[in-house]
Amino acid sequence: MEVKIDPCTGFCFGVKRAVDTVYEQLKKGKTIYTYGPIVHNEEVIRELEEQGVRVLDDVQALKALPCGKACSGEAAGNSAMVIICAHGVSKQVYEMLEEKGLEYVDATCPFVKRIHGIVEKESREGKYIVVVGDPGHTEVKGTLGWCQGDAVVLETVEEAEKFVPPEGRKVFVVSQTTFNYNKFYYIVEIFEKKGYNVSVANTVCSATEERQRSARALAEEADVMIVIGGRHSSNTKKLYEICSEKCAKTYFIQTLDDLHLELPKSVRLVGITAGASTPNKLIEEVQNYVRINF
Length: 294
Ligand code: F3S
Description:
Elements: E1 2-5, H1 13-26, E2 31-35, H2 42-50, E3 54-56, H3 59-63, E4 80-84, H4 91-99, E5 103-106, H5 110-124, E6 128-132, H6 138-144, E7 151-154, H7 157-162, E8 171-175, H8 181-193, E9 198-200, H9 206-221, E10 224-228, H10 234-246, E11 250-253, E12 269-274, H11 280-293
Parallel strand pairs: 1-12, 2-3, 2-4, 4-5, 6-7, 6-8, 8-9, 10-11, 10-12
The chain binds FE3-S4 cluster.
FE3-S4 cluster binds at residues 12-15, 86, 109, 111-112, 177-178, 205, 207-208, 235, 276.
């Protein structure tokens, strides 16, 4: 039996940059907070927590931090450093950081930052923004927080079919960076067929596109696929969705502990792929386990 690792695994550019930023700031001896989990991988977060990094879950938690400089009658003297997570945040969070005089470093992935700029500009010009993505995902919530005026999030083909833009408004469509590339274009086609006045920016990031293509190709030839990644990782969920379409026996695991593999003798090829925030160490553990035990 052969075990093949997807050549496109490992931290993507944005995740590596964000995780490196946190380790870099840790060296300075400050109390480090990340606004939101720095990336969507529980193992990465656990390791950072062990180093003393704390996660601020929402605006309320940020509000509760003491000011960095004298503000609202409060004394100065907070030596905390806040790091904005790779998925980005709304404009309101930046305003609050400034208001509280907190020191911060922006580790938003540049591909996500680009979307913030696009929706801010286009919405300011009066266009109605459609974000194709998961409404519950941090990145999408952050993106909505840059739209000046109303906007909508659509995730499924059914939602896209039902969508009717507000009377007389031009529509501008962007996607969550980790959205399924083919599905995004399918949704755009629906709007075009309906004759809506739409402009589109393909904001699915190139790392995502490449990973999805590579995972699909591996799943096509594999008898069993293992997808490793965080429970809340959007790009891992998409990889799982894509691999499941091509390979009926696809497993989604976070760590080796979740893997309860049964391999019949007929299995010739096991493929392993992983989300963009999955550490190599986890991929190697799974690979070694499969090689040694089967
Ligand atoms: Fe950035 Fe793309 Fe990774 S948006 S965080 S490089 S998956």
